[in-house]
C-alpha cells in the first residue's frame, strides 16, 4: 500500500477474526498499523450489510480505500445443517452489497474471507486453490459453501469488467479469543469448551457430537490475522489463497476433545454421541501456494501449540479475554 492515507474497513470487526486483526494492528511490530493507515472495525451497530441502503451509507461515511470483508452469517456444523437457506441468502446479499459498493466507491483492494468447507466433498487430497468449483460441497453446509464460492465468481467478474482488485482467502477452521461459545451454533472448539465447563460445573457427562474421527486443520486467529494483513498488503492475485497450517498439523476431533478435557482438568464421564452428525470427514488443504508467496516462513509451531500442550492459563485467556 502507498504511504498516502488509507482507510481500511474491516467488516465483521467484532468477530473472532476481526478482533484478532484489531489486536495485531494495535500490538504487532511487523504487521501492525503503518503510518497513514486508519483502521475501521465495523460491527452490526454500524448498519445491516444485508440492506443495500445501509451498506451504501457505511461506504459513504467511511470512504474506505481498502476492505477486509469478514462479515458473514457463520456457524459450526449444526448451525449450518439447521439453516442452509439462511446461510445461503444472508451471505449472498452481504457479499453482493459489499462488493458492489466497493466497486462504486473505487476501493483499491478487497480481501474477502471464504472457508475450506467450500471445496468439493468428493475430491483428492490435499485440496488446493484450483479446486474450488470442481464438484458439490459437503451436504451439511451447501448453502454457506455455495454463497462463498460466488465471491470468487464475483471477484473474477469485477476484475474482468471493471479492473477491480478484489480477491479472497480460504482459511481452515479458526479458533481464538472472542469466539462464539453458543452451545448449538458454535464451532467445535468453543462449543466443546462450553460443554466441558457445564459438565464440570453440574457433574454431568461431557458428551461430544459424532464419532470424533473427522479431521480438521485449526489455525489460531491471531496467526490468521497476520496472514490477512499480509494478503492485503502483498498478495497480487484475484484468485483465492488458502491460509492454512501444514497438512501434517491436521488433528482429529477426538484429539481436540482430549485436549480440552486435559486443559480443564475434567475427570468426569466423557463420551461421543454417535447419533449426531460428523459432517465432512476431512478437507485437508495445502498451504503450498501460501508458502511460495510469503518470503519468510511463519512460525507454524505456535499455531497449534495450544492443542498439543494445552495449559490452563491458555484456556482462561481464551474464555475471559
Ligand atoms: O467446528 P465444526 O462445526 O466445523 O466441527 P466443520 C464439526 C466437527 O466437530 C464435526 C464435531 O465432526 C462434529 O461432529 N463436534 C463434536 C462438534 N462436538 C461438537 C460440538 O459441540 N459442536 C460442533 N460444532 N461440532 C463448519 C462448517 O464445519 O466449519 C462451516 O459447517 C464453516 O460452513 C466452518 O466452514 C469453518 O469444519 O465441520
Provide a descriptive summary of the structure in words.
By secondary structure, the chain is α/β, with parallel strands linked by helices. It has 12 helices and 12 strands. The radius of gyration is 19 Å and the shape is globular. It starts with 5 loop residues before the first strand and ends with a helix. The C terminus is likely disordered. The structure holds guanosine-5'-diphosphate-beta-L-fucopyranose. Guanosine-5'-diphosphate-beta-L-fucopyranose binds next to helix 3, helix 6 and strand 7. GO terms for molecular function: GDP-L-fucose synthase activity; isomerase activity. It holds the Pfam family Epimerase. This is GDP-L-fucose synthase. Belongs to the NAD(P)-dependent epimerase/dehydratase family. Fucose synthase subfamily.
Average pLDDT number: 91
Q: Work out the count of structural domains.
A: 2
**Annotated CATH topology of the largest domain:** Rossmann fold
The helix count comes to 12
Please state roughly what percent of the residues sit in beta strands, choosing from under 5%, 5-15%, 15-25%, 25-35%, 35-45% or over 45%: 5-15%
What's this, in brief?
The protein has helices spanning 16-27, 52-62, 77-82, 84-104, 142-162, 188-202, 221-234, 253-264, 288-293, 300-303, 305-308, 312-320, and strands at 6-11, 37-41, 66-69, 109-113, 166-171, 173-175, 206-209, 215-216, 218-220, 241-243, 251-252, 270-273. By secondary structure, it is α/β, with parallel strands linked by helices. It folds into two domains: 6-176 and 218-246 and 285-293, Rossmann fold (3-Layer(aba) Sandwich); 188-214 and 250-284 and 304-315, UDP-galactose 4-epimerase, domain 1.
